[in-house]
Design a protein that fits this description.
By secondary structure, the protein is an alpha+beta fold. The chain has helices at residues 9-27, 35-45, 63-69, 104-110, 181-187, 210-223, 225-232; strands at 55-58, 71-80, 85-93, 114-115, 117-118, 126-127, 129-136, 139-152, 155-166, 176-177, 197-205. Strands 1, 2, 3, 4, 7, 8, 9, 10 and 11 form a nine-stranded antiparallel beta sheet that branches. The protein has a two-stranded antiparallel ribbon with strand order 5-6.
Length: 234
C-alpha cells in the first residue's frame, strides 16, 4: 500500500474539511423546508372566526411596518361588541429575524407613544410590563401586558396592550415567549429561523378594566384556538 507523501497531507485534510463543511451547509434547513407550514398558517389565519354578537372592520397595517415585517399572514381589525371596542393585530413572519424589532416596548415608542411608568418599582420606576396568564379550557397561555399614553386629536389617551409572542416549537415545549430575547435566539438558530415567529396584540382603551380585558381575550382567542394550534406546531 502506498501512503500519501507528507507534503500532500495538509492539502488532503483541507479538501476533506471543505467537503465536510459543504455537506453540512447543504443539509441545513432553508426557506423552502417550512413552506407547507407557512401555507397552513396563512390559510388558517385568513379564516379567523368572530364571536357571536361581535362585528369588525379591517384596518390597514402601516406600510413601513409591512416592509419591516414581511408578513406571511396578517390580520388587523377593530372589533366591536355590545359594550366595548378594541383593536386586534396578528402578524406571522416566515423568517424569525423579521420579528426582532416589532413588539410593544419598541414599536409603540417609535410611533410616538410613551410607556406608562411603574412608580412603585425599586430602586427606580420602570415601564409597566406585567406577566399575564390566560386560561382557556385546559390551555394555559402566557404573555405580557403593557401600557402607553399618547395624544390623538389633541386628547391624551391611554392604551393597554396584551401581547403574545409565539414560536412554533410543538406541543411538547413552551411556545409562548414573554420577551423578544428568545425570538432573537430562534432567529439566530439556522435550524429554526425559517420556521418564523408570530405575534398577537389586543389593544384596549386604558379605561377597560382587567376583568373585561380578560373576558374579551378569552372570547376571541377561545373562538380561534385552531389559529393558535397551527401557529404552535411546525
Amino acid at each position: 500500500m502506498k501512503f500519501a507523501k507528507p507534503r500532500y497531507i495538509p492539502a488532503m485534510l483541507t479538501v476533506a474539511l471543505l467537503m465536510g463543511l459543504s455537506a453540512d451547509t447543504l443539509s441545513r434547513p432553508g426557506p423552502g423546508d417550512a413552506s407547507p407550514y407557512h401555507a397552513r398558517v396563512k390559510a388558517t389565519v385568513a379564516q379567523m372566526a368572530t364571536p357571536q354578537g361581535w362585528t369588525f372592520k379591517d384596518l390597514e397595517i402601516p406600510s413601513g411596518a409591512v416592509m419591516l415585517l414581511k408578513p406571511n399572514a396578517q390580520v388587523c381589525r377593530q372589533y366591536t361588541t355590545l359594550t366595548r371596542q378594541f383593536q386586534f393585530l396578528l402578524i406571522q413572519c416566515s423568517d424569525a429575524r423579521d420579528m426582532g424589532g416589532h413588539y410593544p416596548p419598541v414599536c409603540y415608542p417609535a410611533s410616538g407613544w410613551v410607556a406608562v411608568m411603574d412608580e412603585q418599582a425599586k430602586p427606580r420606576p420602570v415601564p409597566v410590563a406585567r406577566e399575564m396568564t390566560w386560561m382557556i379550557g385546559d390551555r394555559v397561555i402566557h404573555g405580557m401586558e403593557y401600557e402607553f399614553t399618547g395624544n390623538i386629536g389633541g386628547q391624551s389617551i391611554t392604551r393597554t396592550v396584551d401581547n403574545l409572542l409565539i414560536l412554533p416549537l410543538g406541543p411538547e415545549r413552551e411556545c409562548y415567549m414573554q420577551d423578544m430575547d428568545k425570538i432573537r435566539a430562534a432567529a439566530s438558530d439556522y435550524l429554526h429561523q425559517f420556521d418564523g415567529a408570530a405575534q398577537i396584540q389586543l389593544i384596549f382603551d386604558g379605561a377597560v378594566p382587567e376583568n373585561e380585558r380578560r373576558e374579551l381575550f378569552t372570547q376571541l382567542i377561545g373562538k380561534n384556538m385552531n389559529v393558535l394550534n397551527v401557529l404552535e406546531q411546525r
